[in-house]
Write a structure and sequence with these properties.
Blueprint: E1 9-13, H1 19-23, E2 30-35, H2 38-50, E3 56-60, E4 75-79, H3 88-97, E5 101-106, H4 109-118, E6 122-130, E7 140-147
Parallel strand pairs: 1-2, 1-4, 2-3, 4-5
Antiparallel strand pairs: 5-7, 6-7
Protein name: Class I SAM-dependent RNA methyltransferase
Pfam families: tRNA_U5-meth_tr (PF05958)
GO molecular function: RNA methyltransferase activity
Length: about 150
């Protein structure tokens, strides 16, 4: 962690059961886990209760409605979308929000390339590849995206 995050908010977008948000909850003042599946968000609540984590807040929301969410600055984002990528409306909103950092986790290189074109206020700082599915052509990619310098 090369970023000052203690007084910042983390958006765990497409958060599922909140693994990324919960793992990073000690580093942020506030964590919002957004997913469109209530059962997953119930598990976020349960994990937080079991681990006595108070600053993680699960929110049921469709990705295209991200703009309805009230987010604070400074903002950091972890996005782990399905193979179809981030909804275009959400991409546009993320670009407008200008988070300090976007960590984009992707299992679909072609969609990732399309999404990166829309995130035109950002540049790639680092990339990591993970082979979770040996002997297949599928790789998990994790990108660290930082705002373009003016």
């Amino acid at each position: 962690n090369n970023y000052e995050t203690k007084d910042s908010q983390l958006l765990d977008f497409y958060g599922g059961v909140g693994v990324f948000g919960i793992m990073n909850s000690e580093k942020f003042s506030d964590v919002i886990v957004v997913d469109n599946h209530q059962l997953s968000l119930n598990l976020v609540k349960k994990n937080c209760e079991l681990n006595k984590i108070k600053n993680v807040h699960p929110i049921l929301l469709e990705d295209r409605n991200l703009k309805e969410l009230s987010l604070n600055k400074p903002l950091f984002v972890i996005a782990d979308p399905p193979r179809a990528g981030v909804h275009p409306k959400a991409l546009k909103y993320l670009n407008q929000l200008k988070p300090e950092l976007i960590i984009y986790v992707s299992c679909n290189l072609n969609q990732l390339i399309k999404d990166l074109k829309e995130l035109n206020n950002y540049q790639i700082k680092s990339v990591a590849f993970f082979d979770f599915f040996p002997q297949t052509k599928n790789l998990e990619l994790v990108l660290e995206l930082i705002p373009l310098k003016n």
